[in-house]
Write a structure and sequence with these properties.
The protein is built from 16 helices and seven strands. By secondary structure, the chain is mainly alpha-helical.
Amino acid sequence: MGCAASNPATHDTEGRGRPQRPQVQAGDEAAALAHGLNRYVEIEALLELLAEEDIVLVWASSLMRLAKSGGRFLRRQDLPAGAAVDQASLKRLAGEVKAWSKVLAANKDKPHLQYAMRFPPFVIVSYAWLDKEHPDADGRQLCEVLAPALHFYMAERARLIHEHDNYCSYAGDTMIAPTGADFAVFVDYSSLWQKERTDDQSLSFSRGLQRMDLLYAHQQTAIFRMTKLLEGYDGVLPYDSRGWPFFETAVSQLIKPAHLCLDLGSPAAVQVFARFKELPALAEHATPELDPEVERKLAARGDYGHAFTPGAFKSFKGARDPPLSPDEFASRAAAKTVTNGKDKATLVELQAKVTSAVLGNVLELNYLDLGWKAAEMAVLAGALPMCAKLRSLDLRKNPLGEGLALLGPELGKLPKLM
């Protein structure tokens, strides 16, 4: 598309604004914490948030059409008709998640099901803004990174529909497949009202910003972390140096399965994108279903088999780190850069709020085969005291080594751990 690299200023350029101080809910603290965990687990909580329409999700196909035309991210105000996912379609997509959750609940003894990637229809994008006025002024982040990733993901969803599903027998011989290959995407610039805002839009923006943590931390959403700084942006702060992406990463890795934490910046991922840079022609539509012929062509490009034969998907895996205690998060956040210095205190407070709600009530933590060693075990040991209700901790196939000794004292303090 002939996009030239711009030269944004050498500082953190995130323009997301500062959320107001979170309000402490009244009532019994234990009940409030339990409600907090359900908020990050149940798909209904996500629907309730989106029903308020302070945040909208955008069809992946709309972003791909935009990239195919050489465009860049649009403000929410400028989205074309039909680009935002409507409430009826959100409910249909949520139904897909509910159906698969029932399969998992009924087959907890089948690891190949529990660790299978189903390419859920809610994708949350975490990325670095390149300029205060626009996160991607020349469109390169959209065209070179996100759009190929969406193309890949859509192809795998189409494959589940048209070509391959090893799991239908576990659902009473009923195919548990997406209702359509298209899916819903959160990109803050297009999902929240941007400047210049009306008074009502400003209020809506503030409300959405305060509750945005649910999107990243929810157990049923997939997160796309755009961690690679493209060539030509000399002097721009990379993803890992920024405060907001650090927060988004930290809360997304609390209870989200490892296969839903995707790193789009690994060398292997970049190689996969080269195969998906040529985007398909996608017509506008109002439901998750695409044209059947388009979906079949997309399906032919997917190659995910199951948890043990992941195909190209393996290039995105392995991006999950141990949960950070609030103290560990605060310590690491001190080295991150934010536009407004006061944002650091806000990020620390938000992370503590989410982490307390989630880890304080979590019953099971699954960290199977993540390659964690002693350093990761030390971080996990710092977070375990928050897991008072924890009953099961799966650390199999990790080279624990000396890390086991670090965990031992903390494991002994968890009364319900089996």
